[in-house]
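task queued by scheduler; priority normal; single chain, no ligands, no partner chains; default sampling; output format set to structure tokens
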Amino acid sequence: MHETTALLIELGAIILGLGILGRLAGRVGFSPIPLYLVAGLAFGHGGLLPLNASEEFVSTGAEIGVILLLLLLGLEYSASELVTNLKTQYPSGIVDFVLNAVPGAVAALILGWGPVAAVALAGVTWISSSGVIAKVLGDLGRLGNRETPVILGVLVIEDLAMAVYLPLLTALLAGLSLAGGSLTLLIALGTVGAVLFVALRHGRLISRAVSSDNPEMLLLVVLGLTVLVAGVAQQLQVSAAVGAFLVGIALSGEVAEGAHHLLAPMRDLFAAVFFVFFGLNTDPAAIPPVLVPALILAVITAGTKVATGWFAARRAGVKTAGRWRTGGTLVARGEFSIVIAGLAVGVEPRIGPLATAYVLILVIAGPLAARFTEPVARRLTRRFGQAPAAAVAGTGATPAPAPTAEPRPAADEAANGPQQTPQDTPEASPTATDPAHTRS
């Protein structure tokens, strides 16, 4: 068969298969990411039906997928929002890093993978999935809840931290010296600082220069600018993903909303290709040996994310039920974990299978944790007879009398939406908005 013909057939089969898997995931109410990873495992090296002709094209598509993921994530936040979140949420960010990065680093050292792999695995376990979490918040009808700005604040800090972490990891993986690594980090910090300064001072001018009433022109300019900046960032060893993220931050207002609307379908397509590509490059036979460590790590870091959410929500004055919901919502891992593992497989190949198994576990458990952490915690608290006063300690609220009615069953809650007590009713606030439209 001619090579071009084989490429078209394989590529068409991949895209059609992704569409079918996405519809299947939508019917059962879960993220399609685990299905994409499984599809990649099935058709990759060592899988059921390896793909050869389209591998190079899929690799390029995966790079574009990462760039678009980070661009649209940057479009969701303005530079002023990032600065404000850093000022108010940095203690939560520190707790998040300590509780969730340390288990990954310790696990890599216990497995004997070395310090560079420890830094990489720390990133895999640290970063929550903004894409999965945003979808879960929308699906559960929690976009207006009091805890939603807290969740978004933690995610923003994680995303901004990636602007420093990814260049540092890239330098370590490249085997650069201390001087070379320090220079790369300084370049990264300088670039991030310069972009934030320009975005804060001259964001409107940049958006006005990019703006166009013609959707085609807007799409071409924003996409071209993003890919160009990502390539320059990659050349400077700052990371193409970070470059795309900074472009998104620099755009605001109607330009950001228009670009988000135009690029979202492309993001979804190429992001799916990225997850498939990661699976294609992971040998399924390598997963069983790391399945137990991945499961243990998933259980530990699911608990530490719940603790992180509880701490962050408590600092923001959110009531007890909202604290549990915050923690449960942050459990999911996804795109960033896979990006980090994809960078690190050249140094420690076993990180790929471990990260795949780890993400598969938590991307499935994440929506379940978001839905059921709060009702389960409430029932356990009542079952073990803890005083109601303990549930509202530190909030300044007067303990309410114990309810006489039985708690609503989980099945009813899943069908009718999350139960909210009076103290957890969402307040009308301009900060509690759709994650995909938080730009002003």
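post-processing summary
- DSSP finds 17 helices and no strands in the chain.
- The longest helix spans residues 178-210.
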